[in-house]
Amino acid sequence: MIGAKLAKYRAVGVITLRHQLAYMTDFLLRSVFLLLILFIFVQLWSAAYAGTGEPVVAGFTLKQIVWYLVFTEALTMAFPHLCLRMEDEIKQGDIAIRLVRPLSYIGYHYMAFLGEAALRFVVHLAAGSAIAWCFVGPPAFGAGWAGLLALSAGAMTVAFLLNVTVALCAFWVEETRGLEFVLQKLQFTVGGMLLPIDMMPDWLQRVCAWLPFQAVLYMPARTAVDFAGSPLARYLAVQAAWTLALAVLAVFIYRRGVRRLHVNGG
Length: 266
Hints:
This protein is an all-alpha fold. Helices cover 73% and strands 2% of the residues. The protein has eleven helices and two strands, in the order H-H-E-E-H-H-H-H-H-H-H-H-H. A two-stranded antiparallel ribbon has the order 1-2. The chain is globular, with a radius of gyration of 19 Å. The model has no long low-confidence stretch (mean pLDDT 83).
């Protein structure tokens, strides 16, 4: 019985992956945007390191910081806009169809999210690696790649739970895009996308340590560029803890929302 249920969710992920493969042109266009962003960051960080005259800043060399940005940007651009999809389902009444299917509503969206995010991540990582390779040379992180792989699945799971928690607010509010915008900006800043948490002031590092955003971007990228200096076991434990806490919160919000659901058309 459990195996049959798992097969259903696996099928959702596979179908989503195949569906996304039909739109490779969209991926290539987004990759061009990624290349532009990374080119700008490479120039900014090159100037910053040249200005300091130091080969290592806060434990990062220029090569490490450029590859760190490749990993954080690839992960950021891998996450689909879940809030928009779920908001439309709730507002238009399509959620009624989802609820009668023999699949968990959150579980369905989770597998669809993973299927799409995994493909996006691979494509954007390949595109970002090309420009980083050209400017700072090939990666030499060794076991860092294994660390990135180990933490990426947890990063996508935490990202999904953060987004689904915001998206489920559509049961109460008309628009969730403003909340999604705030969530994205928190990931950009205190999540360590634009700047590694190691380079932030001490007081801000302590704040970030109590937030879930570091588990999405900072931890996988930091482990990839400096596997020896990254506590992989602790990072995995942090991701697991936030996964559990956010899953409980998401299920609570979902159950409260379904109780008050009124479908007005479809």
